[in-house]
Amino acid sequence: MKFSAQLLALLPPLAVASPVNLTRAGLHKLFVRQDVQTAINASLPNVTIFATGGTIASQGTSNTQTTGYSVGLGVQQLVDAVPELLNISNIAGYQISNVGSGSINETISLKLAKMINEELAKDTVSGVVVTHGTDTLEETAFFLESTVNSTKPVILVGAMRPATALSADGPLNLYQAVTLAGSPAGRDRGTMIVLNDRIGSAFYTTKNNANTLDTFFSTEAGQLGVFINQVPFFFFAPSEPVGRVVFDVTNVTDLAQVDIVYSHQDMDPALFNASYSSGAKGIVFAGVGAGGMSDKASLAAEELYNATGIPIVASHRSTDGFVPDGGDFTIASGFYNPQKARIVLQLGLTAGWGEDKIKEAFAKSYPKP
Ligand code: ASP
Question: What is the CATH number of the domain that holds 31?
Fold first, then answer.
């Protein structure tokens, strides 16, 4: 592994890269396997990296700077910083975008889902890695969990420290992600999140701390596994999350607009109408406790539902836990947190599902009393 000082010397001047052209024709495959190795090692797995930006692709102005850095490293630079990757895999890379993950949008998510489905359909490809900012990594991971139809591993990876930092975490995280993507142990487990020596299910894992390395976990569902000396160890045999629904987005170009409304004391009931007026086809609210909100807000939501039929999903603003079916106008999110419930609702609405089918999809993921 190269040290940060060496990495620093490799880097171009600070620059915030503009997003790449996302049309299929304009998509630039940065390198092919033959370009990075004199010969493909037939005994190694072929792993494809899709780079989107984030802290893992960011640089600061000094090796002690761990906030306020800039995104801009490309997929080739990420791979060049970890030459050991070529001892464990034949790598190909695509630059999908180069942005902070707050700017990942449905165009990028759909592009990723389509390209990953195509890539994994190739017999020669063992698995894929997506490098991504950690802030919304769980959303892209869950989106891919819900749209990639393959038994091969899809691994989302990021970093909490920029590439220039002392003890940057990106290089080892990337090494572990590529290891898992190329490993038969990663099969039949859906999309996974790798950070800080841990392997989590995209279905449940969430970012819990805005700053520290040890941020990705799920309190209730736990971790799927860990890396011991860079070898993935799974605690359980392969399985898939209860209630997982996989949508076909091959021909989808836009997703239905779904907004999240945050519930709190004295919340403004007008937010439901505002969301509908701005084009939302569905609303998720991050409820207090198990999907609650004030009487005033609830009345406004019910009036909107009665007038328009817009599906309104009750989720929870607490990190973990589940929302049961309340037998009212709302659809219970079960264990899905608001950002994941939003994706289920978006995909269901985009597929043309009616309220009953959407309700059924949510209900598959939690127990009936
Ligand atoms: N700002 C970063 C992002 O793109 C944070 C990170 O990657 O850790 O999400």
Answer: 3.40.50.1170
